[in-house]
Amino acid sequence: MENWDDKFDYLKLTRSLYLNIDYLQFLIEKVWKITKKVDVIDFGCGYGYLGLVLMSLLPNGSSYTGVDISEELINKGKEIFKELPFNHKFILSSANNVPEKDDTFDIAICNSVLMHIPEPDAVLAEMKRITKNDGMIIACESNWNAVNALLYIDGIKKSKITDLGFLQILFERIHEKTKTDGNIGMKMPVIMARNNIKNIQARISDSVRIILADEKNEDQDSIYTSLQSDGFGEELSDEQKSKKINWFMELGFSEEEATKYLEKEIKLNEIFRNRDELNLVYAAAMTFCFGYVSK
Ligand SMILES: C[S@@+](CC[C@H](N)C(=O)[O-])C[C@H]1O[C@@H](n2cnc3c(N)ncnc32)[C@H](O)[C@@H]1O
């Protein structure tokens, strides 16, 4: 299992890529129509990023409970929330077995969590158990195929820097091997339906981040740093390159396929590092899937 203990800086730098706060406000007010105080539990909360955003948007009197398996991140969350006026609690626990009674919360939510979990159905069942009848389950999850397809970099043919076919097979094979799924976002309506969640709907985050060569300011710097934290521009040593090729081969690709793909990835990273000439458009395309509990 992946260990998130040392990922506070990564989480802090990357969350802003995926979601516009005004879009979350739109969902709360116009789509979810939350008008009264609610008790929310966040599965795989990390340091409580979603709680920080939600608590400033939800009706007064709402509460936030964050659950995570990483003690480091839970402690960070406690430290951050201690200074804030929000009614909150953090629980160190696996998302499969949360020490809370049945039917306790109005909303169970998760952000970029089910994609990392080999048994998303079990976590969904736990989210349902502790949510009240008619309460909501919300899962905000990734679609790596879409992110790669949507990425635009000016001045170079996309086929020279992104091999969509290779990536599609790569993600399928990672899913087969690890049971985790970076493309779980668009599958969530079906996964929720098989877990008997009702009135399922889905939206896609409207966040698009832009870097323009001729426009340098704090916002652009922050987007650039966030993308760097997400792996863009990475410079691989020879050892790292051969490790990557071996890993692709373990996943069933030939050495030729793996090398050809890696050349494109290296080219993309080189172009990204040339900040002064970079014109890039990036969309995180996270699916917000939600439905209602009927017991
Ligand atoms: C990508 S991070 C997302 C964190 C947070 N939701 C956010 O948006 O910042 C995934 C989180 O899931 C947590 N996690 C992974 N497996 C878990 C499990 N089985 N039970 C509880 N938390 C888990 C990790 O510790 C990590 O904090």
Automatic annotation (TrEMBL):
GO biological process terms held by the UniProt record: methylation
MF annotations from Gene Ontology: methyltransferase activity
Methyltransferase domain location: 35-146
CDD domains per UniProt: AdoMet_MTases
Keyword Methyltransferase appears in the UniProt entry: yes
Key words, A-Z: Methyltransferase, Transferase
Record-linked Pfam families: Methyltransf_31 (PF13847)
Protein name: Methyltransferase domain-containing protein
Domain of life: Bacteria
InterPro entries xref list: Methyltranfer_dom, SAM-dependent_MTases_sf
